[in-house]
Amino acid sequence: MDILIVDDEQSIRLTTSLALEAEGHYVETAEDGPSALRRLKEDDFQLVFLDLRLGDEDGLKVLQDILKQNPRQLVTIFTAHASVSTAVKATQLGAFDYLEKPFTPDQLRAILAKAHKALQQQVEVVRLQETVQELKSEVKHNSPPLQFKSEDERTQMEIETLFRAAASPASVLILGESGTGKSVIAKEVHDRSHLRDKPFVTVSCPSLSKELLESVLFGHMKGSFTGAIKDTWGKVHAADGGTLFLDEIGELPMEIQPKLLRLLQEREYERLGENKVRPCNVRIIAATNRDLAASVVARTFREDLFYRLNVISVTVPPLRERRADLVRFAHDYLNFFSSQMGRKIDGFSESGRQALLRHAWPGNLRELRNAIERAAILARGSKIEAEDLPIPVAAETPAAGGAAVPVIGGEYSIDHIEQTHLREVLRWAPTLQDAAAILGIDKATLYRKRKRFGMD
């Protein structure tokens, strides 16, 4: 626990600091109200010990200023026996508790235990508030919850492996293309673990520069870099006792990787610009769309960190390899969005279904969700037709003459792929010159190809 002692007597500050540090706490001191308020603005302290007599200052006024600055700050009042009635008044103004001078080590420990319990309750309240907001947002904006089962045997085996591992404290590495639902799966692992009532904190590794990412992860001290105007805690501190989810960890800069390795191995870390080693007990779940083994070979990812993360590893197959799941997900999304919009849409026509099955879905679930939301808005009939789907999906329905637009990697000849692509570009390009530019050839080559494929 980080504690601030506010007392105008140096002897009290010194003896109380020694007693608290002996109990394993981090302690700083202030001799008056203004310096205390300044330190509380600069850093986060879980508990403040405040003397009601600070020279000529009114301790009650300092208490009110502290609580005005941070209404959730725990403040324990130091008071002499003669001013217990004033201490009672202080608790009425919002003080957490009071401690009579002189106090014994046991009395101090009792206050600390009570403060620790109060801090846990504060964390729980914040967590519940965040959960309520997440649920409200999910109801308003998001998709239906994914069903964690699969018709694909390989995928189902991966899911079962993952959820068996949820009960252990081991690190988990989730591999898969972008949009396959890795973050949703990570949250489900947390919710099925013994940490379900503890924090689940997410860090997106590619979203920040190296300097900012390090600060977001581990926190920083005032002045440790340009713009660091106050001491700040990081996501590691926020996740203490729970789960830290590192999304797209393959993008983690090499400079930060040793610090993450230390957190995994030693369960400790330091804030930027600070020499104090802090303990932290978090479970790490990481996800990436990169081949981390290849990154190790390329020396862009530490081998020791890879092995520490790779205790339990699962791969989420892309949607194009899970056609039965694709249709089920599409129906779940359609039911969700049509219900939100107050529309009655009875599934997909055959052309709509075939369009879904033929598309490669490079964006996986994320792309499917957006496509179905669009279709639910634009559908003119009681079923989703191919033409209601986005152009990249709808364009892969049977073309003129009944020939299907090929899926890349399917059993099609090069000539068939070239002919089909050429026909589609000619169909929507404004002019032949535009078509040639799109295809990356000159008009003479385009003419020869049209003649070869009988498109004159």
Automatic annotation (TrEMBL):
The modification 4-aspartylphosphate is found at D51. This is Sigma-54 dependent transcriptional regulator. It comes from the Bacteria. Keywords: ATP-binding, DNA-binding, Nucleotide-binding, Phosphoprotein, Transcription, Transcription regulation. InterPro entries: AAA+_ATPase (IPR003593), AAA_lid_NorR (IPR058031), CheY-like_superfamily (IPR011006), Homeodomain-like_sf (IPR009057), P-loop_NTPase (IPR027417), Sig_transdc_resp-reg_receiver (IPR001789), Sigma_54_int (IPR002078), Sigma_54_int_dom_ATP-bd_1 (IPR025662). Gene3D superfamilies: 1.10.8.60, 3.40.50.2300, Homeodomain-like, P-loop containing nucleotide triphosphate hydrolases. Residues 2-116 form the Response regulatory domain. Residues 148-377 form the Sigma-54 factor interaction domain.
